[in-house]
Amino acid sequence: MAKYMTAGIISLNLLRAIFITIAILAMLATEVSADFYPVQTGTINLNRPHDYSPSKDCANCHLYLYQQFEHSMHAKAFTNPVFQNQLYDVLLPQMKENPNARHKVGKCLACHSPTIYMTKNQQLPARHRMEYGAPGVTCDFCHTMISYSGKSPENANYVTSPGPIKYGPFKYSSDWHRKYSPFHTSSKICGVCHEGSNSHGVQTHTTYSEWLTSSWPKKGVECQDCHMSATGRLIDGKAIFERGIIAAARYISPPERKKLFSHRFPGTNVLSQLEGAVKLKIYNLSREIEPGDTIFLGISLDNSEAGHSMPTGAIELRQAWLDVRVSLPQSGQVWQLKAERISDESWDTAGMSVSNTLSLDNEITPGSRLYRAVLVDSKGRQTFNNWQAVSKVFDNRLKAGEIRREMFRFTVPADALGNLDVEVKLYYLRYPPAFVTRLGMKPAKNILVAKESKIIKINY
To answer: Based on the structure, what is the number of domains in the chain?
Structure first.
């Protein structure tokens, strides 16, 4: 009897050892190479994975629109390298330390890959699980949105109805899968993702509300009139659309549309959207100028063409700046004029604080006037991770319809020869140099938005 009891104990201990070993190996495997990261999406009713079709399926009939879409930032919303690196290399490690941060990942997914958000049972696949990357904002997702929940569109509060019926802007239904949706002709459909705040209540995406408080809604101008038009901007205050056929297949003969909505969705990733978006003018505020005089130069920046602030989008990252230079061509002398500091923290002037120097590197000439919003974390430090922001401490971006006036001063050298040349340039940058450098990426290129020059006569 004792012999069988001993064998049973040995067998039990062996099983326990095997079980513990398997558990440890599973823990190590999860720690080293997790396949999925649990996130809290906050959705009430998750859809099944097959409820959304890939955008490539739409190309069978809508090839022209699909070709436009696949080059858009909507298609690349998840595979964008900056978003990917910030999500996987910055936010996810923080989530491991603080499981309560899971909802932050869910909020990111809700707009950058809504079909993953809606179908993956509150799990974010690891990078190595996505051979071709997760889908961004897909055709099927947008065309199955029917409304939003709550008082206003924001924070991915969309309501969807995935299935064979696709919703769009045409007012009649003539085939098996199309249904008219006034929601798709309204800026509200854009607001569900282009308006949002973080868990601390700090507004981090305000493009929709910037448009809403501008003069454009009263004029009947929607987001689509710029960002889905043929030109990507208004021409003489009007939207210009392409004409054409939205679908082509063997057994269908759709009519030519007088208003064909572009699916390129041009934004700041398209140069034509930025170049000339703001108009510059130079005013000589001094009449008679002689060598040795101190003169005042007025610069106006006209943002009346855009339907939102300049810059807009992820407000903690975007920035624009004004570079003002004067020169005496005859002597070859050039001076870069420095903006006068307005804010106590020097957020509005490049190179005037340690924080500015650390975040801007040498890409922006010290003394340039900055236009941006600044978010800070719980320790009062500027942050480029919007989920960490507890407050917005500064915002001097050019509002929609605003004409901003700046003033610079310059003392003409006593030995000056010839006339004075003034050159003003407005630049735009999508991401601060130090921010992308920390993510292991190359800095974005400075984009010239506008420039203006003027010759000022000097009396000798």
So the answer is: 2
